[in-house]
Design a protein that fits this description.
mainly alpha; 2 strands; 4 helices; single chain
């Protein structure tokens, strides 16, 4: 039986996006980190912006072919980060 996995915090998710875009982290590192939560049998938490971000980050290392470009370029990843930040700000206003 697998243990319950707690979702990462919003700050942890944002740090992964930023690290990826700065080049401090590889796409493969970020993908493996996100996949751990997405593939968990039981993930603790229902933070929608975090879940959506994890779904984007899981697979960020996919390529169009064996020697192809990444399916999602840095501009698209930056867009995901922007959307994540907008969703977080919107939810804070509702609280």
């Amino acid at each position: 039986m697998r243990a319950m996995v707690a979702l990462p915090t919003r700050a942890e998710v944002e740090a992964r996006f930023e690290g990826l875009l700065r080049g401090d982290m590889t796409r493969e590192e970020v993908d493996r980190w996100a996949a751990r939560f997405v593939a968990a049998d039981m993930a603790e938490g229902d933070d929608e912006p975090v879940w959506e971000a994890l779904m984007h980050l899981c697979g960020v290392d996919l390529r169009s072919g064996p020697d192809g470009d990444y399916l999602h370029d840095d501009e698209q990843v930056a867009g995901w980060l922007g959307e994540f930040r907008r969703r977080v700000r919107t939810e804070r206003r509702r609280d």
